[in-house]
Amino acid sequence: MMTIGEVSRIAHISVRTLRHYDKIGLLHPSAVSEGGYRLYDEEALKRLHLILLFRELEFPLSDVRRILDTPDFDLSRTLEDRIRLLTMKREHIDTLIALAAGLKLKGLNNMRFTNDDFAAYDARRLDDYAAQAKAAWGETPAWREYEQKTAHASAEDRKHTGDQLMALFAEFGRSRHLDPACPEAQAMARQIQDFITRNYYTCTPAIMRSLADMYDGGGDFTRNIDQAGGKGTAAFIARAMRILCEKEL
What we know:
By secondary structure, this protein is mainly α. It has helices at residues 4-11, 15-23, 42-56, 61-69, 75-106, 124-138, 141-150, 155-173, 183-199, 205-215, 220-229, 233-248, and strands at residues 2-3, 31-32, 38-40. It folds into three domains: 2-69, Multidrug-efflux Transporter Regulator, Chain: A, Domain 2 (Orthogonal Bundle), CATH 1.10.1660; 74-139; 140-249, Globin-like (Orthogonal Bundle). Helix 8 (155-173) crosses helix 11, helix 8 (155-173) packs across helix 12 and helix 10 packs antiparallel against helix 12 (233-248). The radius of gyration is 24 Å and the shape is elongated.
């Protein structure tokens, strides 16, 4: 057993932090001595290791507690999402470092910027991916259904399904000049809803509305859909999906 002071020293965190973890139910002491001192055994130290690791991986404390206290939590998928997000952040930071180094070397007056350099300041794809990954941490019914439907799918299978969805977007794009409320556009919105239900999770009106918000939100979804179907396709699909939602609610 180790006292709270000893744990504080070896883990390089404050006693105050350990007391806070105890208060919020994240890390309770293994025992309390007759003198009232908090004591921690090997299991508690192992849990503390995991807490500190997840904190360094930028998980909020509420998510750390959910990960550690949910027996069937999909830890592998959650870590996979976190690794991808941190890799994207590293790439973003590396780009900024390269721009800063160039500015330092050449000076402000001699630095030449191109329109492509503005991409270095675009962190929206990080936000988009973080929002998607959050669905896994939240253990939503839709996410659990998705996990069940794709449990035995290979990487090639997932790519094939994604390509099929992009083909639907491309088909939708060829009709983006139409009124999104017209029967043809509504039939295509229904086709996308059915495809998502068949291959991913039950696409309820509430979920479809959320997808519409992501499709025309200006991030990676918008860019990928517009790339498949032409500029304006994402906004057109989103409007058609919202109209279909109103009919089903």
